[in-house]
Structures
1.
Amino acid sequence: MTDYAIGDIQGCYDRLRDVLAKVDFSPSRDRLWVAGDIINRGPSSLETLRYIESLGSSAVVVLGNHDLHLLAVALGGHETRRKDTLSDILEAPDCDRLIQWLRQQHLCVHDSVRSLVMAHAGLPHIWSVDRAMAFAGEVEEVIRGSAAKEYFTHMYGNQPECWDDGLAGMDRWRVITNYFTRMRFIAEDGTLELTTKESAGEAPEGFAPWFRYPRQDDTRVVFGHWAALEGNTGVDRFIGLDTGCVWGGALTMMNLDSGEKIHCDC
C-alpha cells in the first residue's frame, strides 16, 4: 500500500485523474490524503467530490475553507459568492448524502508512526500536536452534531484573532477553525493576520509565515491553502502541496514515505 498526499484540487477533476494515473493509483491498494479544498473555483466540483467520497476508507480527508464554505451555504443559510462553482453540488440529487459525508471529515489528522500531521492551512507553533488534535476534535464534533447550523451561521469572521484557553462557544470554534483552514501569517504570540495572501516574503510587520516559528517536536506538517508559496516553505519538514492548480499552476501529489512529488500541469 502506498499513501499519497495531494494539494488543493478545487474541482479540477480531470487534472486529479491525470495525476493519479501517473502513479497507477488504485483504491484497492493505495490511500489518498487530501489536504482540503476538494471543491470550488474549478470546473467540476461535483465530479471531484463524488470521486473522493467514493474512495471510502482509501481517502484521508481534512476540510479546507472552500469545503467549509459549501457546508455554510448548505447548512448555515449563507449565499454563494460570484466566483463559486458549487451550484452543481447544491442541485445534485445526491447533495444531501455528499453534505453528510463532508460533515464527517476532519480538520486535522495525525499519523504518529510517520510523525506527520495534515491540516489544510497548517499547524500553529503555539499548539502541541496533542492540543491541536484535541481542539480539532472539538470542532469536528460540533460540525457533526446538532449545533452545526449555529456553527455554520456564525463561522465567518476574523475575531478572536488569537487563541486563549478561556475562549468558549462560537468564539472558540471560530478561532480554531481559522488556525486550521485560513492561517498564513501569524505573530509570535499566536495572533493571526488573515487578510494578506501574498508570498511568504510579504509578511506584514510583526508577523511571519506560520512555518517560520520553531516547534518543540519533530513532526512533519503537510498542508495546502497557500498557492502563492508555489510549494516552497524553505523548511523540509513543512510540506506545502497547494501549487495553484485552479489558477493555471500545477496539481501536486507526494508519496508520504519516499517524499517523491508528482505534478500535473494545469
2.
Amino acid sequence: MKDIGNKLKEARESIGVSIEEAAEDLKMRPSQIENIEAGNMEAFQDIFYLKYFIRDYSKYLGLNKEEMVDEFNEYLFDYTSKISLDDIKNAKNSLKEKDKKKEKKVISPYTLEVKKRISIPPYVIYIAIAILIVIIITLGVSLNKKHDDFIDTKTVSVEK
C-alpha cells in the first residue's frame, strides 16, 4: 500500500498540486489524501471506499486508474492471503456465537414484543357509519315508495 501511496504522492508533487487543493477538487478531506499517500489503510473503515478513493485520485492526477486499482487489488489479495486459517475459523466461530446470542431471548411479560395492530382513525369510522345510515335511509324511502305505489294501484283497480 505504501508503494501505491508513494506513486500518488510523486504524481501530485510533480504537477504541483497541494493536498488541500486535491482534497477540495475531489471533495475529500485532506486527512484522507494524507492517509492514502502514507499507505495507512487502517484509517479507512471500508476497503471499497478506499479503492474508489484511489481510483478517483489516480484519475485526478492523470495516472492510469485501472492500473492503480489493479495494483491495489493485488496488494489486497496479498494482504488477505496472509491471514491464517485459524484466524478465519475463529472469525467464523465468533460470528456463529453472535448469531446464537441473538436467538436466545428470555420471554417474560416485560420483554414480550407487542405486535403492532392496525389502527383505524376515529373519523374514518364516523364517516363509514354516516354512509351506512344514508344508504339505509335511501333504501327505506325507496321501498316505502314502491309499497305506496303498489297500494295505489290496488285501490284504483278495486274502485273500477
3.
Amino acid sequence: MTGTEILYFPSADACYLRELDASIIESGNDHIILDKTLFYAEAGGQPTDTGLLRWDGGEARVWKVTKEKGVIKHYVDKLPPSGQVHGVIDWDRRYAHMRMHTSQHVISGLVFKVYGARTVGNQIHSDHSRVDFQPATFTPEDLKRIEDECNKVFTAAKPVTIFEEDRVAVENRVDDRALMDLIPKSIRRLRIVKIQDVDYCPCGGTHLRNTSEVGRMHITESRSKGKETDRIVYELLQ
C-alpha cells in the first residue's frame, strides 16, 4: 500500500484548499484510507478535521482522522464503495484551528524570546487554546505584555510561510524553542512554519497566510501547573 499524499502540506496557500477528489486504496470496518487527503489528522495539539465524503448515490460523515504508524485513517459513519470520492472539509472548524495554531506559534515565539520559557504543551480548540510554558512564573504585568506584544504582531500583518528544509540546516538554525529532540531522527526533511521575524519552527499543522487573519488575542486565564510551569489560556476576538 502506498502512502497518502497530504495536500495541505506544501504551503500556507495549500492550507486554504477545501475540497478534493481522491481514490480509496483501503477500507476497514469503520475507516478508509485515501491516496490523497486535505483532512488534518489529530496531532501536535491540533484537533482532527471533520467533513464529508461524497460519491455517486451517497455520502459519509468524516468524524475523525488519525495518523497511526504513518497511515492516515478517515473514520466515517458509512463506508463508501470502492473507487472515487469527493471530500469536503468543515471549513469553519478548519479555519478556526488555523487561526488558533498560528496564534500559538506567535505567543510561543514571543514568550521564548522575551522570557526564555519553552512551550512544553499546548492544546488548540475552536473557541480557546492553552499553552504551557517552562520555566515560567508570569505576573499580571507579564500577561498584559504578552497579550499586547502578540496583538502587535497580528496587527502588523506578518506573512506566514511554509516550506521544507534539510534537518541538518534546521538544527543549525533553531534554538531550544523548536523541541527538536521530539522529532524522530529518521525524518531528514522537516516542514517549517516561519512567521517573519517572530517564529521559525518545525510543524505539521495548518496555518494562515498572514497574522492579520488572527484578529486579537485575549488572555482569559493563567495558572501554575507546578515545576516552574505556567499555563496561559486565551481566546481570539475578531
